[in-house]
Amino acid sequence: MKSLVIVILLLILLMIWILMTKKKLVVMDENVNLAMGQLGVQVFSQFDAAMLLVDLVESYTEKDGSRLKKMIQTEYRILTARSMPSDVLKQERVIQKVLDEISDISGKYPELKEDRGYVKCLDAVESYKKMVWTSRLIYNDIVTKYNQAIRMVPTCLVAGILGFHKREYLESGEY
Predict the structure, then answer these.
(1) 171 belongs to a structural domain
(2) Range of the domain at 69
(3) Gene3D superfamilies, from UniProt (predicted)?
(4) Three-state SS string across the chain, please?
(5) How much is the pLDDT for 174?
(6) Total domain count for the chain?
(7) For the segment 93-142, what is each residue's pLDDT rounded down to a tens digit?
(8) What pTM did the predictor assign?
């Protein structure tokens, strides 16, 4: 009888530990998703500032502005909490491609470079670039903590059974 009570208590303790571990892993997984969502917001803000630049370019050269808008419509995708690091990199490349094109176009139109709105938009793009960089660091830090947690014994046993898998890091980008 005594051994049966001990076995039942041990099973109850095991179940409590499993539930607590699951809760901890769910919270960490959600933190990774929230960090990706925040990164998506920052990338979108940078994209928004770039779009204002495209609008300015269009006021100087409708042909180039329309071409840039078309390129953006076909290539840009909004990032969500469930986006992958590769999605972030793709969108950053789209934004950089647009900015490079705008830089080339502004070389042909000196009055565009001198436009106050142009300068303000460039400053905004640079500010959002810094925010994206910070969000990338935060994302990678949270992913590191999550990945470490799911690899630790005995948590890795529960993580494997419950379907928690290693998350990918964002490659270090240029600042």
Answers:
(1) no
(2) 22-162
(3) LemA-like domain (1.20.1440.20)
(4) CHHHHHHHHHHHHHHHHHHHHHHHHHHHHHHHHHHHHHHHHHHHHHHHHHHHHHHHHHHHCHHHHHHHHHHHHHHCCCCCCCCCHHHHHHHHHHHHHHHHHHHHHHHHCHHHHHCHHHHHHHHHHHHHHHHHHHHHHHHHHHHHHHHHHHHCCCHHHHHHHHCCCCCCCCCCCCC
(5) 56
(6) 1
(7) 999 999 999 999 999 988 988 899 999 999 999 999 999 999 999 999 99
(8) 0.88
